[in-house]
Amino acid sequence: MAFIKLYREKLKENYQFLDSIFKPRGIHWGVVSKMLCGNEIYLKEIIALGVREIHDSRASNLRKIKALDPEIQTVYIKPPAKRSIESIVRYADVSFNTEIYTIKLLSKEAQKQNKTHNIIIMIEMGDLREGVMGEELIEFYGNVLSLPNIEIRGIGTNLNCLSGVMPTQDKLIQLSLYKQLIEAKFNIHIPWVSGGTSVAVPLILKNARPMAVNHFRIGEALFFGKDLFNGETIEGMHHDVFKLYSEIIEITEKPDTPTGELGENVAGHTFSVDKAEDLGSTSLRAILDVGLLDMQPQYINPEDEGITIIDASSDMLVIDISNSKRNYKVGDLVSFNLRYMGALYLLNSDYIEKKIG
């Protein structure tokens, strides 16, 4: 069975690195756990770091977090669905919102549960995912202020997740101006201005963050140490907190070109012969016990630079080991570094064992 392994010390060092960036600057931050898909083994590792605020996009995952530690502040990080309102009020201390209709439902449910539910009002700032349009924000905010059992914790925005719009200094200054406008209009104080996700970390490192932006939601930087502006690993961080290990179940020298009438494979791809010299060539191929049911090949990278990924079917991954310096045998493990989406697929699979290293 293929398995994914979390390396505890690397996770701890990444967490401490980030905390050393945020705390001296007076920034509140929470860990985004949605990639862990509610896996309790890994959630316990997050909690053991000393994390006191965890963000997720599934109410069922927030329920697990509250069961593990009721004192952790839980944040639901997408606009709630009508049919999830009861669970969100019960298990999320804070939720991100963009619709008056939904906030009214949260207000009624919070009254039923005799709770105060906190919300962040998300503002559309160009990435074209969730968010209230800027010209409607003042009226929207005013309508929410009067709702019982609802407390506005702050405002926020989401960038880079859909259209790839980057959280530049200008974007965060614009978010700060919204804070000033609202505070002046309603004579109130906004505690949180949530400036985004891991993609904003390079701005913080360059001290290019407007001081009013005081809250961030961090997942990818914690688990992969990645600078999302340039794709490189942030100096002082680990990119390999998670690794995939998969067992070789066959090794055979085979032709590089399939024989027979060609059609689409199970993934909808059609093989084509591009070069005449490909005809008659062979390679040493290995088959691994992991496939499209559990991962997508474009999001995993073999640690052995001599390995090339050929393709995958539902339950098997084919690799070319011809150029490897290792003498692989059936039963050996092949290790892979992961991109964010690679880990997400694997962690969502019940067929991939989860281990701690």
Automatic annotation (TrEMBL):
Pfam families membership: Ala_racemase_N
> Would the keyword Isomerase be found if you checked this record's keyword annotation?
yes
The prosthetic group or cofactor this protein requires is: pyridoxal 5'-phosphate
What InterPro entries is this protein classified in?
Ala_racemase (IPR000821), Ala_racemase_N (IPR001608), PLP-binding_barrel (IPR029066)
Q: Which residues form the Alanine racemase N-terminal domain?
A: 9-225
Which keywords does the record carry? Isomerase, Pyridoxal phosphate
User: What name does UniProt use for this protein?
Assistant: Amino-acid racemase
The organism is Flavobacterium pokkalii
